[in-house]
Amino acid sequence: MTPPLWTAREAAAATGGSSNKDWSAKGVSIDSRTVEPGDLFVAIEGPNFDGHDFVAKALEAGAAAALVHRRPSELPDEAPLLEVADSLEALTALGRAARTRTQARCLGITGSVGKTSSKEMLRTALATAGKTYASASSLNNHWGVPLSLARMPLDSDFGVFEMGMNHAGEIRELVDLVRPEAALITQIAPAHIEFFPDGLDGIAAAKAEIFEGLQVGGTAVINADAPRAQILIEKAKQQGAKIVTFGATETADFCLRDHRDGDRESHVTARLPGGPLSFDLGLPGRHMALNALGVLAMAASVGVSPEAAAKSLAELRPLKGRGARQQIALPGGGSITLIDEGYNANPVSVTAALGLMGDCEPSGAGRRIAVLGDMLELGAASNAMHAGLAGAVEAAGTELLFTCGEAMKALQQALPSRLRAAQSETSAELAPLLVEALRPGDVVLVKGSLGSRMAVILAALEELGQTATDRRTG
Fold first, then answer.
1. pLDDT at 389
2. Cβ contacts of residue 99 below 8 Å, gap of 6+?
3. Cα radius of gyration rounded to whole Å, the chain
């Protein structure tokens, strides 16, 4: 029988709280909408919501108990509660206790782009050698990391944790919880650059905080091709870390020799410390091939064979919002290929996504269509960075460009008029213009920062496909 993840006694000891009942939990949740029977529901209070308002709903859904810092008035006296001074601090304490008790070998990942895809690659690679747990989705902030730790199964052999930031000092706090044996920095790019007066230097220094939490003798895996890679290397040296590099740079320890994309995957040829290696990767794009080498370096750092790890990477498929492809039927017949890159955006990730579109061949009379929303948090350099995408747009063979947001006007102005299909203030205004322009065989890339609400456009395309299906089956 699987032991409980947390008992009332263990959770109370970890958080300094007190429980009014004896209970045991098999999971941890902070969302009453997705809580599973047997979960410990943690009532987080944020600026725009308060989890205490949903404690009753979570318990009705089968939560084993609720961690709270105030008792909701509508609860019956017998409701199972773990009462603490502050629920977010208690969640952090729970995560810290989970890390202390685990025998799993923990690894950390950060970077301006590629964190989540690299985390999924590393999860798959390590699973060839033992039971591997990794943080779900993009749980990489001040509550996501402790939540991920608190959820880690007791019998895990490996734990993989993603860490993100938009201000200096944030990763330092997160890595203090994870205390990894190895840490990977995927890339340095101008994401959130408005919060860094020193530009990429400041971003590199903030990302390098991940090395401060490395265990003694730990490994720092660094992208040798990244801007400010030397800053990362120096920071790792200061922590006494073993340094392993990856990239296309000839001196990289894990060196990319060749990369060829197919429709759904790519073939990678590399030079590793142990010799040459060729493997298939289920994630298209040169940037994915480079990150795969970083993942193999991470696997090797904890004794996992890079050859065995590489074989597993052929099984991967792009994640929703991060390169996932699907065929969308059109009401008049035929279909388009949608490349969903709608999760987030900065100049590096947009350029990479455009490259993916460029490698995808339209069918028949189809065209390559880029649908781009504003890249946010770029500060004073925003207009220049948006205009700077013009070369990548043209190099990808884009035939029509649809954009939304104030900053994207700079890109439209930097391109020849033949490419400028439409510019709107919002994604909601842009969606019908795009839908009206589609024809069979088109390849459509959708990319933008979360605040640009590209999900509205993705939903419009999915609705279009559903309408076509209904007509054909009705």
1. 96
2. 106, 149, 177, 178, 179
3. 24
Close Cβ partners of 19 (under 8 Å, ≥ 6 residues apart): 8, 9, 11, 12, 65, 80, 81, 82, 83
Sign of the C-alpha dihedral, residues 89, 91, 95, 97?
A: positive
Between 286-301 and 115-126, two packed helices, what is the crossing angle to 10 degrees? Answer: 50
- Looking up tokens 């944790």 gives 161
* Cα→Cα distances 50→91, 146, 169, Å: 15, 18, 26
Q: How big is the chain, counted in residues?
A: 474
Apex 179 CA angle, 174 and 181, nearest 5 = 130
Looking at residue 261, what is its pLDDT?
Answer: 85
Q: Indicate the burial class of 137 (C-beta count within 10 angstroms; 0-12, 13-18, 19 or more).
A: middle
3-class state of residue 336 by DSSP: strand
- Give the separation between CA 316 and CA 318, rounded to whole angstroms: 7
CA 450 to CA 456: how far, in whole Å? 11
Q: How far apart are CA 92 and CA 174, in angstroms?
A: 10
Nearest residue to 177 (alpha-carbon basis) of 125, 212, 217, 134 = 212
Q: Is the pLDDT of residue 1 over 80?
A: no
Q: Are 165 and 206 in contact (CB under 8 A)?
A: yes
Choice between 342 and 300, residue whose per-residue pLDDT is larger: 300
Q: Are 85 and 16 in contact (CB under 8 A)?
A: yes
Q: Would the pLDDT of 85 be above 70?
A: yes
Tell me the β-bridge partners of 210. none
Q: Distances from the Cα of 232 to the Cαs of 119, 200, 206, 211, 246, in angstroms?
A: 20, 11, 10, 9, 13
User: How is residue 215 annotated by DSSP?
Assistant: P
Rounded alpha-carbon distances, angstroms, from residue 121 to 84, 107, 156: 37, 13, 17
Q: What is the pLDDT of residue 470?
A: 60
Scan for tokens 């003798």, then name that residue. Answer: 217
pTM for this entry: 0.88
The DSSP bridge partners found for residue 328 are 336
Question: Which burial class, exposed, middle or buried, applies to 273 when counting CB atoms under 10 A from its CB (0-12, 13-18, 19+)?
Answer: exposed
In this predicted structure, the answer to whether residue 472 has a pLDDT above a threshold of 90 is no
Summarised one tens digit per residue, pLDDT across range 420-430 is 989 999 999 99
| Sign of the torsion angle spanned by Cα atoms 45, 51, 55, 56 | positive
End-to-end C-alpha distance for the chain, whole angstroms:
49
Instruction: Tell how far CA 2 is from the center of its chain.
Output: 30
